[in-house]
Design goal:
The strands form five sheets. The chain has a six-stranded antiparallel beta sheet with strand order 11-12-15-20-18-17, with helices on both faces. It has a four-stranded parallel beta sheet with strand order 3-2-1-4. β17 and β18 (351-357) form a beta hairpin. 31% of the residues lie in helices and 29% in strands. The protein contains twelve helices and 21 strands. The chain has four domains: 2-102, Rossmann fold; 108-124 and 197-293, ATP-grasp fold, B domain (D-amino Acid Aminotransferase, Chain A, domain 1, 2-Layer Sandwich), CATH 3.30.470; 130-195, 2-Layer Sandwich (Dna Ligase, domain 1), CATH 3.30.1490; 321-405. By secondary structure, it is of the alpha+beta class.
Length: 405
């Protein structure tokens, strides 16, 4: 069977998750990408481990017409799939063109476009968040003085990801300044200004086949100090309170979300769950790699099987007697990473801990206030949260990352 996987830059989710899973399923894999050289290096590594059938073709994957043309001129597809935030609508349109199982392109667009998501939720009576959209180049001064503009509020790119250029502002002058800064960096981007939603930040991870939807638990997320929103730590939550899950799923239903993997971020305040954003794909930053190990399920295979038209089992056999945590050591300034720990796989009693560096020694980076500042990722799993937390704390206390100008 032929799988087309659409991708931009290589990610851990693709290289360590979906590609190996596709090969285990015996699929012929064609990666369509605008960055073929990087993906060919990944494919070569997989084949060196015994994998076969990974093909890489150059394609303007941001244009669904180019994707359809590339597939149509090649081999007949059995599935068209992507785990990229930026490519869900294009993937859904291409899959639908060939009559294949797919997410609704309308739902993919609603979740990617944060202004449209707010409008859709409000129209459905699911949740109303005060927000204003700024078109590319629009003067933010007109918005900052608008009647009813809530402060504090959050400025974000309408179609952004990974907390890039997401910032909390306290008043009109700061709003104008922050918008102008983002517009200078992203001259073609529309922005959204919306009320700040107070509460504890969580995620909900779901997997559906269009008929049944499984909840895989979620994470409690700890952020950097304001005004930025960098995710620094995630602690696994096996089961959220049922009323909270019901509220989030109701909002996802209003958006039309229910096929394949979905990663939803939301806050809970006084029992009320309100969506921050919906990423209509599997959770990233190695959380998906942790989940497949933690829950003891073939998560990546399940996701791919839904796109091949297979039904999910009524019970995935997900473990709930588990505990886990991920920490992301972050750079606190621009510069060259002069030293840092290497990859490690350790055991602290019953706790299994993995560390993977995300930045090479000798690399220079600016400070982005996003996950691009991550120096590495610590993943720890076990059955007791206190022991997991202690293992991570001990590991981090023994490490040093040196950044020089």
């Amino acid at each position: 069977m032929q799988l087309y996987l659409l991708a931009l830059n290589p990610t851990d989710s693709v290289t360590e998750g979906f590609l190996p899973a596709a090969l285990r399923l015996g699929l012929a894999v064609t990666v369509l990408t605008d960055r073929p050289d990087a993906h060919r290096a990944v494919a070569a590594d997989l084949e060196g481990e015994g994998g076969v059938g990974v093909e890489v073709l150059k394609c303007d994957v941001r244009d669904f017409r180019a994707v359809i043309a590339r597939i149509s001129a090649h081999r007949a597809p059995d599935a068209v799939f992507s785990n990229s935030d930026h490519l869900q609508t294009q993937t859904a349109l291409a899959a639908d063109y060939f009559g294949l199982p797919a997410k609704s392109w309308r739902a993919a667009l609603r979740t990617k476009d944060k202004a449209e998501m707010r409008r859709r939720l409000a129209a459905a009576g699911a949740d109303a968040v005060r927000s204003v959209e700024l078109s590319p180049g629009q003067d933010p001064a007109a918005v900052s003085a608008a009647p009813g503009m809530p402060y504090p509020c959050v400025v974000k790119p309408r179609e952004g990801v990974a907390s890039e250029d997401v910032v909390l502002v306290e008043g009109p002058q700061e709003l104008v300044r922050r918008c102008e800064e983002i517009q200078a960096r992203r001259p073609g981007a529309a922005l959204v200004v919306e009320e700040y939603l107070a509460g504890e930040l969580y995620t909900l991870e779901t997997l559906g086949d269009g008929r049944v939807r499984h909840v895989l638990g979620g994470f409690r997320t700890e952020l950097s100090p304001p005004p930025y929103f960098v995710e620094e730590r995630l602690t696994y939550v096996p089961v959220h309170p049922e009323p909270v899950v019901d509220q989030v799923l109701s909002q996802l239903d209003a958006l039309g979300v229910g096929f394949g993997a979905c990663h939803t971020e939301f806050v809970v305040h006084e029992g009320r769950a309100r969506i921050i954003e919906v990423n209509y794909r599997a959770i990233g930053d190695q959380c998906d790699l942790l989940l497949t190990q933690l829950l003891d399920i073939p998560l990546f295979e399940h996701i791919l099987r839904t796109h091949l038209g297979e039904s999910l089992p009524p019970d995935l056999g997900v473990r709930t007697d588990v505990a886990a945590r991920l920490d992301y050591p972050c750079a606190d300034r621009a510069g060259i990473l002069a030293s840092g720990p290497g990859a490690a796989d350790l055991e602290y009693g019953d706790v299994k801990l993995t560390y993977r560096p995300l930045r090479g020694i000798g690399e220079r980076h600016e400070l982005h206030r996003t996950n691009r500042d991550f120096l590495g990722v610590v993943r720890a799993t076990g059955t007791d949260q206190e022991l997991v937390d202690r293992a991570v704390a001990e590991f981090l206390a023994a490490q040093r990352w040196e950044i020089t100008p």
